[in-house]
Design goal:
With about 210 residues, the protein is of the alpha+beta class. A hairpin with a 2-residue loop joins strand 1 and strand 2. It starts with a helix and ends in a 5-residue tail after the last helix.
């Protein structure tokens, strides 16, 4: 069961999205897995006004366990539930609308291996999903296809998804994806950046298995 301290930690992470410029207004959402389902941010509520008890517990089939203060779960709950269901090692998910990554998603472009840190998402490319309307099962399916076995993807004409074993890991990856998107867009403004080879990225991915451990 999620306790009050865990709710407070999740709310602090959610507020960082706006503080770090990764999202604005009421866009974006955050979730954390627990044994009976997930805890997720409410729909259409500014992070600055959220309180720990506004966060909503629900199972992965969409059943809410008591709706605190009349709040509804994020419209993207299906996307979060689908990712948790297919990734048993994923403990937290962040969805945001950061400027650079969102701009790149509107071009329907992946982030290729122009920089070795692309491997932080678990592969050689950070893919961009197909487009689907927000809050739908179609978007959840599109996100799962783009993620595959990786920890981050762009959502076409929408934003990003970043996953991690913990809130700290998911937030760190969201920050990294936005930084990479900005670097890639700046490089594209001058020309086509040189891409690392499959062999070079394979070596980076191997190094990342023990990096920081």
């Amino acid at each position: 069961m999620i306790n009050y301290a865990q709710r407070t930690e999740m709310l602090a992470a959610a507020r960082q999205l706006e503080e770090r410029g990764l999202t604005q207004g009421t866009s974006g959402n955050v979730s954390v897995r627990f044994s009976e389902g997930m805890l997720i941010t409410p729909s259409a509520m500014p992070y600055a006004k959220m309180e720990p008890l506004d966060l909503i517990t629900m199972n992965l089939e969409g059943k809410v366990r008591g709706v605190p203060r009349g709040r509804l779960p994020s419209t993207e709950w299906q996307m979060h539930a689908g990712i948790f269901a297919h990734g048993p090692d994923i403990g937290a998910i962040i969805h945001a609308h950061p400027p650079w990554a969102t701009a790149l998603s509107c071009l329907r472009r992946d982030i290729p291996p122009f920089h070795y840190m692309v491997a932080a998402a678990g592969g050689t490319v950070i893919r961009c999903s197909d487009y689907a309307t927000f809050g739908t099962h179609d978007l959840a399916s599109a996100a799962l296809r783009a993620l595959g076995d990786r920890r981050a993807c762009l959502l076409a004409n929408h934003g990003i998804i970043a996953c991690g074993a913990s809130l700290e890991a998911a937030l760190g990856l969201a920050i990294e994806v936005e930084a990479l998107a900005g670097q890639y867009m700046r490089a594209l403004s001058v020309g086509e950046p040189a891409l690392l080879t499959d062999a070079q990225m394979a070596r980076v991915l191997e190094e990342f298995k023990t990096y920081g451990r």
